[in-house]
Design a protein that fits this description.
579 residues, six-stranded mixed β-sheet, Immunoglobulin-like
């Protein structure tokens, strides 16, 4: 009997530790044009009285919020006090490849990286985090990430909350897995502990007025369906890369890993009351990480995904405790914000087709690796050379059984459609992350108008286990490439003429490519590619006229599965001049 009482007592204590409410951590800020960051180890008490080993920036966990002004030139010092090599990527920001902080820009232990760049972005909420290939998930999950708030004149003219930590709050939403010693487990699909700003069951005092929340999904894998208890209305005012034209009235907001959104909540009539921020995961369809079943077929399993109290269930993220208003509160939701002018679809120079799929199809695909265009990431392979100044449509098809958040570096994009349908109003602003559901095709348009460089940018799935597993590609913006006209049949060969290399791109899957000289002699060949682009080095070919012949794979979906389509348009021929 005594033993049972002890056990029951321990269970009660553990529950109290797990459910006790705590004031959420509000990160410090760094302002100005000189930013010093130190990556370091630390400990943090996610559970009262228990120290968990963490990584942080200028502290034990997470990092300071960087408040930057559009037009300023900012110098950064990033010192790595870890014993592991890492990087820091400025997610969502429009900067050169040298400053982007992708997998090529190592910061080895004990060294310092000094990027410097002009802030060209619109007012919005961005973030920074490590991006070392195969280590991104570990470094982010252990705690290295921070907010970036960019301010500009357009935003300053609006009557919006903007006093940091008073009526304007950054909230990074995450789930993690802890072992019995309360250490963070990475990688893991058993992420059954939700937190905001590294605080479990957190509380935040907010004034009884209009309050601005900057939401970031900083999780490794989980998608959130954010809403307020009682289906209370809130207003979205911004997406990844800037303000929307007008506030959008919502009761739910889906946030995939890497996505951000700015929202307003009117607490004016709630002085002395509390309101819970929740994730309504019970409303997710299968095929989303966070739903009852992570694959679109309920028989598809993901190791250690279930049982999990968060999957397919509504759960609390944090609680707002409403207190007296400030001396100069914002009391109204604005009717208008800024002018948003999407790129015209007619302005596109090329459409690139990307296909996301598992390396191995079948019922166990969720436990394997995923690819983009049948290719896993290779640090030494450039997947696309993009001409400087190109306006492009990217058409991305998800042929896997789970939703993937697609993220592109360097640029913000405008969503054109989902399976041909107009995107929801909340997705019609500037974006750099978009969740693509199973068997869905999403098209966006963007322009590559700056920063030609030999340092590549990334595009990848922002589910960090998938990214670390190779679901990533890279591109270079190249000033030597020029497309003189749009392709009528979806095949482009550029630059033409060329001196050292050329790229073939197609809107259809390329199977074989053969290059012959003017005498009909073969000089190069690539077979069984199943790619949408291929690049040839011409340095040793000699000057002259060459002919490129490509054969499409032409896999199309029909009854009984994938079939090879044979038609008179299966082969294409182009002339290329080497000078």
């Amino acid at each position: 009997m005594k033993v049972k009482k002890i056990i029951l007592g321990l269970i009660l204590i553990n529950r109290l530790l797990a459910t006790a409410q705590n004031p959420i951590l509000i990160p410090d800020t760094i302002m100005g044009t000189n930013v010093d960051l130190t990556l370091q180890y630390g400990t943090h008490q996610f559970y009262s009285g228990i120290n968990t080993n963490t990584m942080g920036v200028n502290g034990d966990v997470l990092g300071p919020t960087l408040i930057l002004n559009q037009g300023d030139f900012v110098n950064f010092t990033v010192k790595n006090n870890l014993t592991d090599t890492t990087t820091i990527h400025w997610h969502g920001m429009h900067i050169s490849g040298e400053n982007d902080g992708g997998p090529h820009t190592f910061i080895t232990p004990g060294t310092t990286w000094n990027p410097s760049f002009k802030i060209m972005d619109k007012a919005s909420t961005y973030w920074y985090h490590p991006h070392l290939h195969r280590k991104t998930n570990t470094h982010v999950s252990k705690g290295i990430s921070g907010f970036i708030i960019v301010k500009d004149d357009e935003e300053a003219d609006l009557d919006l909350p903007r006093t940091y930590g008073v009526d304007d709050f950054p909230l990074v939403i995450q789930t993690k897995d802890f072992n019995t010693a309360k250490e963070i487990v990475v990688p893991s699909n058993t992420d059954d502990v939700a937190m905001v700003n590294a605080t479990i069951d957190g509380t935040l005092e907010v004034p009884a007025q209009v309050v601005r929340l900057r939401l970031l999904n900083g999780s490794s894998m989980r998608v959130f369906n954010v809403g307020l208890e009682g289906n209370k209305t809130f207003y979205q005012i911004g997406s990844d890369g800037g303000l929307l034209e007008a506030p959008i009235s919502l009761t739910r907001l889906q946030l995939a890993p890497g996505e951000r959104a700015e929202i307003l909540i009117d607490f004016a009539s709630m002085n002395g009351q509390s309101l819970v921020l929740k994730s309504y995961a019970s409303e997710f369809q299968n095929g989303i990480y966070g739903a009852s079943f992570p694959g679109m077929n309920a028989n598809m399993t993901l190791d250690n995904y279930n049982p999990n109290s968060l999957n397919g269930s509504d759960f609390n993220l944090m609680t707002f405790n409403v207190v007296v208003p400030t001396s100069s509160p914002v009391t109204a939701i604005p009717n208008y914000l800024v002018t948003v002018t999407p790129l015209s679809e007619n302005s596109s120079d090329i459409t690139r087709t990307l296909v996301m799929q598992p390396k191995q199809m079948g019922m166990n695909q969720l436990n394997g690796l995923f690819t983009i265009n049948n290719v896993s990431f290779n640090l030494d392979v450039i997947n696309y050379y993009i001409p400087l100044g190109n306006t492009e449509i990217w058409s991305i098809r998800n042929q896997s059984a789970i939703a993937h958040p697609f993220h592109i570096h360097d640029v913000q994009f405008y969503l054109l459609d989902r399976n041909g349908n107009t995107p929801a109003p909340s997705e019609q602003g500037r974006k750099d992350v978009i969740l693509i559901k199973p068997q869905e095709t999403v098209r966006f348009i963007t322009k590559f108008d700056d920063f030609p460089s030999n340092i590549p940018y990334m595009y990848h799935c922002h589910m960090l286990i998938h990214e670390d597993g190779g679901m990533m590609g890279q591109f270079i913006v190249d000033t030597t490439l020029k497309i003189n006209k749009k392709s009528e049949d979806g095949v482009l060969v550029y630059p033409n003429p060329t001196t050292d290399k050329f790229t073939i791109t197609s809107i259809r899957n390329i199977k074989d490519v053969t290059v012959v000289n003017a005498l009909g002699q073969m000089v190069a060949q690539e077979k069984e590619l199943n790619y949408f682009a291929v690049t040839f080095d011409t340095k040793n070919w000699g000057k002259g006229i060459y002919f490129v012949e490509l054969i499409y794979a032409n896999d199309v979906k029909g009854k009984g599965g994938m079939k090879r389509r044979k038609d008179k348009n299966n082969k294409k021929r182009r002339k290329i001049i080497v000078q």
